[in-house]
Structure formats: C-alpha cells, structure tokens
Amino acid sequence: MKLKARDILKESTRLIGNDLWRYVLVIALTETMALLLVRQVSSRIFQLALVSAKVQGINNQNYLQILTNPIALILILFTLFLLGTFVVLQITTVLAFADRPYHDNKLSLKSIFKPILKMKPTNYLVFVLYIFIIMPLGNVGLTSVVTESLRIPSFIIEFIESVPWMMITYYLGLIVLFYLNIRFFFAFIIFYNEPGSFMQALKHSWTITRKHAYLIFKITILIGAGTILATLLALLITLLPLIVSEHFFPNNLKLVNSLLSTAFLFLVMFIVSLSSIFMIQGTVVAYHQLKGDQVSPSRAFYKPKKHSLIINSLVIIAFVFFAAVAYFDTPNHALAGSVSVVSHRGESRNAVENTLESLELAAKHKPSYVEMDIQQLADGTIVVFHDYDLKRLAGINRKLNTYTIDELRGVSIHSHGNTSTIPTLDEYLALADSLNQNIMIEIKTTTKDSPEFLGDIMKIVESHNMRDRVIYQSLDKYAILNYKEKFPDATVGYILGINIGGLEDMNVDFFSLEDYSVTTRVVNDAQRMRKGLFVWTINSEELMQFYFKTQITGIITDNLELAEEVREDMKKTPISDLFWSLDFLESR
Q1: Roughly how many angstroms between the first and final C-alpha of the chain, as a whole number?
Q2: What is the rounded CA–CA span in Å between residue 312 and residue 493?
Q3: Domain 333-585 class?
Q4: Which of 197, 213, 364, 528 has its C-alpha lying 20 to 30 A from 414's C-alpha?
Q5: What is the DSSP code string of 299-326?
Q6: 331: phi > 0 → left, psi -120 to 50 → alpha, else beta; which?
Q7: Does residue 363 contact residue 429 with C-beta atoms inside 8 Å?
Q8: What is the pLDDT of residue 280?
Q9: Based on the number of CB atoms within 10 Å of its own CB, is 317 exposed (0-12), middle (13-18) or buried (19 or more)?
Q10: How far is CA 290 from its chain centroid?
C-alpha cells in the first residue's frame, strides 16, 4: 500500500482534534511523573550507590571505585533498569491513548502495562542500547523526557573533531544511529500491539520500513519544521508587546515582562507537547495504514467532550503561579557583571592557542583570567602547551616531555592559518605581567615529571611578582592538593572532566566542570562548601545568557567577543529575560 505523508498527518490532525485537551493532559501527566517521581526515585537509588562506594559522585578519577564495588554496581544497574522500564511505560501510555481509535475496547491499565510484563530478560541488553543510545543520539521519532537530555559532552566532541579520522567515524556513527531510528520507527507500537518480544518488534519494524524509510524521514522533518515555525511565531507574538512596553511603559516593564515570559513559556510548552502528540499519533496512523487497518466504527464519529470549567480554572491558576514565579525570580541585571569571563587558551580563533600572540589578543578584551596549560620538558623547563604530543598542532608524532627546550625552539605550531612557537612559562608570565593580565594555570602532569615541578611553577610565578594574579587548576587531584599543601595561600581548583552526582569536599578553592556535568546539586554543593565554580567551555550565546544569570564564579570560553556582546545586551535590554523562566524551569 502506497502511503503519503500528507494523508498520515491529515488523519493524525483529525484524530488529535477529536480529543486534544485530554491528549495534552496525558502528555503532561507522563512528563510530570518522569520529572517529579521517576527522577527523584532513581536519584535516591543512585545516591545509595554512591554512598555504598563511599564517593560523592562519579568522575574521571574514581569510576573504578564504583565499578569494583558490587553493591554500588548493582544499584546503578537497577537505576538504569528503573529508568528504562519507565521509558517503556511512558511511551506505551501515550501510544495506547493514540491507538484507541483503532480498537473497540476501552483503555485500561492492563493494556498499558502489557509491554512491561512481556519483556524478556534476554532482551534487556538490546533494550538498554536502544533506549539510552539509539533513541537519544539518533534523535528521530518517539522519545522520552528521561532520555532526551542524554548527549555527548561538548569537550569530548571538540576532541573528536580535532582528529580527522575520529571526526569522520563520529559523524558516520551519528548517520548510522539516525538510520537505525528510522528503521526502528515502529518498534514500540509493534511491541504494544502485537505478541512477541522487544527484539521481534525491532525486527518487524526493520522489515516493514524497508520501503518506507523516506516517508518516515519526511514525516519527522515536517513535524520538526512545524514546531520551529510555531515557536518562532510564539516568540514574535510575545516580543512585540514587550518592545512596545519598553518604549511606552518603562515603569511597568517588569510586570509586563513577567506576564509575557509566562505566556511564552505556556506557548512553548503547548507547542512542544503538540509536536510530541503529532509524532506519536503519526506513528500510530502510519502503522495502521501500513497494515490496512481502519478506525473502529464505534469511534469513527467520536464527538469530543467540551473541556470543563475545572480544566480552564487549572490553566488560569497555573498561569498566575508561573507569572508570579517569573516576576519574583527575574534576575537582577547586575548579576551579568558578577560572573567572571575566562579566555580559554587565549584568543585561539585568530592565533595559535597558548601562545604569546593568543595571550596578547585575549588581553585586549580584558577577561578576568586567561587560561593556559603548562607541562614539563625532559630538561625540566616548563612550557605552555595543552596536548601531550605535537601531532595536532605540529604534525609530529612525538611526546612533548621527550623534548628539551633547545629542541623545541625549532618546532613551529599551526592552527587556523596561524603559525607560532611554544613559549616557556617564564616568557608567558613576563608578557602577562606587562599586560597586567591575570592568569589561570592548568597544571598538566605526567609520570616523568621531576619532584621539583610544582615548586618550580611557584618560583617562576614569584619571579614576575604575580603570586596574587595567578590561580591554578588541574585534572590531577593529587597534584593540585599537593600544590595547595605546599602553598596554602595559592588559589587552586580541581577540574572534573566528567562528574555524575555531587561534589567531594576537598582542600581546593574552586571546582571546574564541563557544562554537561553542571546540575542543581553541583551548584548547591559548591555553595554549601563555599567553593567557587567555573564552567567550561561556554561558546554559545544561549549558554552564556544562562550562566550570566546564575551565581557561578565564571565561565571559560573560546569566544571573548561574543561574551562581551551578550553581557552588554543583557544590561541594555530586558528582552533576554523573556527566556529566563524557560531556563529556570529547564532540568539541568
């Protein structure tokens, strides 16, 4: 049977229109249950796992401590099982609601739980791979609030993109996952409607999508495009009154802004819910049209019930509540100036990173600090360089710590059409001192470092009278704690490449985390411990706006110019506050 995307979306629109409000209610309930119940329960179990392993969170240095603790490992696996089970329950609940028009029987709890009850233990590995890898990374078709925030940390992606073969492999992998999502598009509706295991549902979906992959792709593109257009329209509707109010009613701007922020929030929530509804109903309609099924006669002429006064009242109450939250929680614009901006390896867009040229260009923007990396050479000289080898910037496959400074003088490094040489720490700080620029030193360690390495760093810093203008951080927990012990008045920080859970209290002055690892708990832990918190690497306007409105210590960025523009725009106009409620409510 030849199917058309237009006919599928047209039939989906008719079925959705028949019972839109109850549809939205089902989506809202399942999403709320995921956010408030499942995440809370799973986080408690995960916390028990951390307690069992005697750690505050999982990071790049203690993950083996978790994996070698049987109780902690069992609890983490149970957390994954619980989350995966709820994903099935959430998706099958809304699928069951969307599937009602094709059945005479009334929707029951038994039918909703049926897929869970027939899940075979032998299919769990495939199930986990599909739920936590293929679905969120492939990003096509059905999804869940539990998994939609899963993503690869940006610093890992940046590293991958810096190595050509890894970048090619990564993007080919994404294409494969995208294609798998297309081919497994009907897996859940098959698993709900037909007998058989989840593996059989995947195989059946693979079979029936062989000739309809483009159709599925077209449906998802049309729904996605509609969502974007609707969101832009909602933005336009709320921005115009705000611009008018800013010019004609400046004294009432905060109240108007709060009301419009809430209106925008409601519109976006409705649009996102409607997008999910269309994707779900489109999946169901396409599946039944492929099978040649028709809407049940008893439901063909279904007349929707008018939404009651209770629903209208609840919507109004919710609107007033969120408007009040937006009014009292709209941030003070002074906060935008209290968050430090740190230049990541200097101005690396117009010069080679970690060079004297990159430092000089960065200093023109007057950042709070210029971040740089140091390592020790074979002869004990300390140089400013990030990678442990010269392959990326010099095309030489040799470890940096095998060089002497005399050998390194003849090596040129290249990036983005720029050429330079590797400076010593002494040369770098001499220029920083002349520029009156504060520095954030990342100490990179190897097993070949001399015992004098840490002491030599401070000697060079003191030789330039910069002890009060330099702070230190490292991925090596023991090195940075040792540095703090040697120099108690030094400001030091511990870098966590990946962190899941809370922060461990230790003798450092700040923590440095990638955006992916920053959660409400992390921020609360840092504040409770009275530690600073730097977040890296923040290069997008949206993330800059978000963090400038928080009370973290600072952001580390590759784009100082954009950071300056964002900060100034936030001080000039309250339009950016339109998105504050959305950012505030977003789960991080």
Answers
A1: 45
A2: 52
A3: alpha beta
A4: 364
A5: HHT--PPPPPHHHHHHHHHHHHHHHHHH
A6: beta
A7: no
A8: 87
A9: exposed
A10: 37
Tokens of 241: 């009154």
pTM for the predicted model, two decimal places: 0.72
- For 338-388, the DSSP string reads TSEEEEETSS-SSS-TTSHHHHHHHHTT--SEEEEEEEE-TTS-EEE--SS
Give every CB contact of residue 485 below 8 A, 6+ residues apart in sequence: 507
Residue-wise DSSP of 491-552 = -EEEEESSEEE-PPP-S-SEEEEEGGG--HHHHHHHHHHT-EEEEE---SHHHHHHHHTS--
DSSP 579: G
* 225-244 per-residue burial string, b: 16 or more CB within 10 A, e: under 16: eebeebbeebeeebeeebee
Domains of the chain by residue range: 5-329, 333-585
Whether residue 265 contacts residue 585, with contact meaning beta carbons closer than 8 Å, is answered with: yes
Cα distance between residue 240 and residue 248, in whole Å: 12
Q: Which of left, alpha, beta for 414 (phi over 0: left; psi -120 to 50: alpha)?
A: beta
Q: What gap in Å lies between CA 50 and CA 56, rounded to an integer? A: 6
Burial label for 217, CB within 10 Å (0-12, 13-18, 19+), is middle
Amino acid at 134: I
Strands (E), 32-88: 57-59
What are the residues facing 495 on neighbouring strands? 512
**Matching residue, tokens 């920080």:** 493
Pairing of strands 57-59, 499-501: antiparallel
63-96: b (≥16 Cβ within 10 Å) or e: eeebeebeebeebbeebeebbbebbbbbbbbbbb
- Write the single-letter amino acid at 108: S
**360: its two tokens:** 């000089």
Residue 432: pLDDT band with limits 50, 70, 90: very high
Q: In the structure encoding, which two tokens stand for residue 492, read together?
A: 């030091």
Alpha-helical (H) ranges within 249-308 are 253-291, 297-300
Place of tokens 């590759």: 558
Q: CA-CA distance, 151 to 154, in Å (whole number)?
A: 9
Residue type, 299: R
Task: Please state, in angstroms and rounded to a whole number, the distance separating the CA atoms of residues 463 and 137.
Answer: 50
pLDDT digits (tens, 9 = 90+) for 143-196: 665 666 666 777 677 778 777 888 899 899 988 988 998 999 999 899 988 988
Question: pLDDT, tens digit, for every residue of 360-399?
Answer: 999 999 999 999 999 999 999 999 999 999 999 999 999 9
Given a contact cutoff of 8 angstroms between Cβ atoms, the answer to whether 384 and 372 are in contact is yes
d(CA 583, CA 564): 21
